[in-house]
Amino acid sequence: MVNRKELNPDAGPEAAFGARLRTAREDRGWKQDDLGGRIGYTGRHISGVETCHKSPTRNFSIAVDVALGFTGSAESFEREWRKIKHGVLLQGFPEYVGLEGRAAEIRLFESGLVPGLLQTREYAQALADAAVERGVVTAEQADQRVSLLIERQAALLRTVPPVLIAVLDESCIRRPIGSPAVMEAQLQYLIDFAAQANTMLQVVPFSIGERRPFDRAVNLLTLQDRSVVSYVESETQGHLDRELSSVIPLVRAYHQLQAVSLSQTDSVDVIHQLRRGTP
Q: Alpha carbon of 196 to those of 24, 33, 163, 199: distances in Å?
């Protein structure tokens, strides 16, 4: 234990893979040699993957799944390897997804698009297909994006579900995505979402102008121990932050945003009006 290296899962997808591998191994009381012996690798190789000195391979990930009993499950290391291989996830996002699935409260702000946790499969598929057409991702990567999104949504269907607060810029509900039928179903999904006991939906009207405090998507998680984590994402980068000194200003700005947003009742009315105008 003297030479045990501290791992930073926020350092990137491979770091998150390695940190999760160590946790899964130690939860079973296995040393690196123990796991290595079960999957046909040396303990040194296991150490290399955990500390990011070696990249995981598909065969390695499949073997780990067999040893840990994760084959075909949401915890599959082979599935995580595919996300690393094809670049589906931004830095910081793998750990964020893990925390999101266990959070007591989730607060979202999005501009331009309905946030992933509130997207219908058809809406998400339209976005993924468009990315394929632009040459940004392959068809396989697009399928992985949609599959990961559905897994994230399913993780919130718990006995005690998290409080889920979504504040959407007006552009999210006015920008047409997919066919008229896809957009109409998405708007109805938002209306149904707002009716749930553990949710809140607010629309930020265009009229607030420069008073909108955020220029990019912001996610805030309150964990079971009441700590707060932020995840802010741009087009090419994601940043997970646990430091109170930088998270608290985002929480404060989120409250300010809610104060200038429409109430949930008025927000749902706006969506109803827009939906009635959808051909």
A: 35, 49, 10, 6
Question: Domains in the chain, start-ordered, CATH in brackets?
Answer: 9-85 (1.10.260.40), 93-276 (3.30.870)
- CA-to-CA distance for 182 and 178, rounded, in angstroms? 6
Phi then psi for residue 109, to 5 deg, are -130, 135
Q: Is the dihedral of CA 221, 223, 228, 230 positive or negative?
A: negative
- Report d(CA 8, CA 16) in Å as an integer: 7
Reported pTM:
0.69
Any residues with CB less than 8 A from the CB of 90 and at least 6 apart, and which?
Answer: 233, 236, 237, 238
Q: Side chain identity at 137, as an amino acid letter?
A: V
Please give the Cα distance from 277 to 279 (Å, whole number).
6
Task: Report the alpha-carbon angle 183-193-231, nearest 5.
Answer: 90
Rounded CA-CA distance 172/214 in Å is 14
Both ends of the chain: CA-CA distance in Å?
Answer: 65
How far apart (Å, rounded) are the C-alpha atoms in residues 90 and 78?
18
What gap in Å lies between CA 202 and CA 5, rounded to an integer? 44
Taking only the tens place, the pLDDT of each residue in 161-217 is 999 999 999 999 999 999 999 999 999 999 999 999 999 999 999 999 999 999 889
